[in-house]
Amino acid sequence: MDFKKEFLKYLHYWPWFLLSLILCVSAGFIFIKVVPPTYQTSALIFIDKKQEDKTKIITISTSQKNDEDNLEEEIRLVTSNEFLLSVIKKVNLNVSYFEKVYTVQNHKVNQVPFILKLTVSKDSLPLTSYDIKVNKEGFVITDTETKEVYRIQGYEGNQSVKDLPFKIILSEKAMKNPSYYFESDYKVSMEPTAIALKNLKTSLSVLADEKLKGTVELKHTGSSPVLSRKILNEIIFLLDKNIVINKQKLFTNTVAYLNQRIKNFTKEKDSIESVKEKYLQNNDIGVMNSYIVEQTADRSQKKETSLLNEKQIKLTYYAISSIKKSGEAQTLGTDYNLDAPTVNQMLSDYNATLMESEVILQRAQKNNPAYIALITQLQNQKQQILNTLDGYLNFLNQNNRVNKTEKSITDSNIKSLPTKDKVLGNINNDLTMKVETYVALLQKKEEAVLNSAILESNLKTLNAPETNYSAIFPQPISFLSASFLLGFLLPFGVIYLRLTLDTKIHNEEDIQKVMTNIPILGFIPKIDTSEKLDNTATSRSLIAEASRALVSNVSYLLPRKKDNKGDVILFTSSIQGEGKSFSAFHNAITLSNHNKKVLLIGVDLRNPQLHDYFKIDKNEAGLTNFLANKSNDWKAFLKKDTNFSHTLDILFTGQTPPNPSQLISNSNFEALIEEAKDLYDFIILDSAPVQIVSDTLNFSYLADVTVFVVKYDYTDKSNLVHVNNFIKKDLLKNVGILINAVNMKRAYGYGYGLKYGYEYQEAKVKEPWYKRGLIYKRSLS
């Protein structure tokens, strides 16, 4: 991309850029002065969430405390409708007061010399505004929408007007000197609560600071810093009040809950104690430890008693067996260790009786009645001993059975000790837990009661509401910069769009993009009417110099001829009005100024133009007369010795024929050209446009060079496509392009300028500056 060319292209439209910049910057400056500036007021508060844990019955685990700095609940509270409605009510945002400083701008104020007493609810207020002025009679109130004027007599506010939603009274301070306020104009804006709530939500921002845990930043945007600070202070106050109220509710609910739980735990503790009591009674347990010792000792005693009883049974069996085996004169043993004193006494008596029988036997015979009586007595005693032993044995066996039963019971009691201990332990554990919980609830209750007595908020104001007096809208520097940028981009966009949509030819590049191999022969500048015909041999006008350059360039396209016949140069264009007749005229004059014999023929039978340059009647006889009747001598129709050159002859078109295509395609025209070649050095043909009619294509083969004329800022690029097709089909031969009517003041960036080795300057075209740049124009290189 050629940046210099692009820059020059847009630089040409500098008046539009300048006008747009002036308008946009001026509008931005006026807007800054007219629109009340908007400021941002901010405050920073800290909410200690950890402080709340002190009043909680259940302590949160460490993993759950990760969210202790989450302030979503507080943010939702501040942005809730109910909370903001309280702010609106406290700050009275339904009514705004302004002092009219300028005709287009009002200055919001917090104090006015009057007081409004609303006669309708704030929810029913109309969305409107009133202009209020104090005069010596009272108040003049004007509805800004309906322009209806209300007059209130007096300053006491006794008069009420049907259509006004308020009564007005002069303030106590203004009552002292009402005339002081006669020259001031005030404006009161009213809005229902719903609109005020919506506006407050729009202007309020509540965000938690991610870096500083537990902090909340409050921002309010408005035109009145005092009101913004008042709103933020009210929000902080109400939030602090809500926190305290919520804490009071929490303490009240906590104490009530604790009382209920304490009551329930008391019943549960008493119930567990009753269960323990019944269990101990049912199991005959006084104290579990003593019960275990007693059961263990009883078991040992029962075991020992059983062992002793079994030992006596064995000894009794042994004693009975020993006694039965003893002879009549044999003493019985007394060392059986029987725990039976009667048996032991009977054994001793038996042995004593036996001793007596031994004494009697020594003195008498065995048949001695005394001896026999003793023996009988011994037998009876021995039998009594055995009988006694049998009875003793029965007694022991009976005791043995009793002992085994008691031992079994004792063993069973011993085995049930762990179970009873476990059951009793569970009862004791439940009881202990209830008692500990009961004590903890009592402690929490005392803490809650003490905390409620010394209740304080966990909200702290880190930064009180402060206003940044650097206006956020409109920001003068940024707004003026944006206005300047808009002033630059607006014309740039319009020009860019226009250039993008523009399909006209403006330079060589536009032509070469379509007709790549066709040479550019030159250009004809756009000149003033007074210089239109200034093309003499000594002229230094732009048209004369451009025509000389064209002749030089055309000469390079002319084929080399061995004969001395003249060259035929055909001038044509795509459509009418592109200047082919003008170009052919000046080309013929320039060639004749070089002392060449030149014949200029008007071959545009439909719309001839050459006669205008020579001030000759359009219907004067000419080419059409010869074409219609070959017997006529075409030389008789020539115009010679014109004011432009004595070597230039002109054959005008003549009367417009009804059949131009048939007329021009007959052999008469070709014969004319062949004859003219012997008489002239150059034959210049001013033909018809090739895109409109086919007249030119019928004789284009006669030309040695075809000069195709396009007009600067006039010819459409699409026309070149059709002409290029004619060239590809050889309907036009040896073609060169001539660009006509180039505006030298508007053409730029392609090296033309206004100099050609000499100081030639185009006559100034006096044209209003605002018309310069309506169409994209570039110069031709």
TrEMBL record:
Domain of life: Bacteria
Membrane topology: Multi-pass membrane protein
Keywords: ATP-binding, Cell membrane, Membrane, Nucleotide-binding, Transmembrane, Transmembrane helix
Broad class of where this protein is predominantly found: membrane
Keyword Protein biosynthesis among record annotations: no
GO cellular component, one term: plasma membrane
CDD domains listed in its UniProt record: BY-kinase (cd05387)
A Pfam family this chain is assigned to: Wzz
Subcellular location: Cell membrane
GO molecular function: ATP binding; protein tyrosine kinase activity
InterPro entries: Bact_polysacc_biosynth/exp (IPR050445), LPS_length_determ_N (IPR003856), P-loop_NTPase (IPR027417), Wzc-like_C (IPR005702)
TM region positions: 12-32
Domain Polysaccharide chain length determinant N-terminal: 15-90
Xref: NCBIfam families: eps_fam
Record protein name field: Polysaccharide chain length determinant N-terminal domain-containing protein
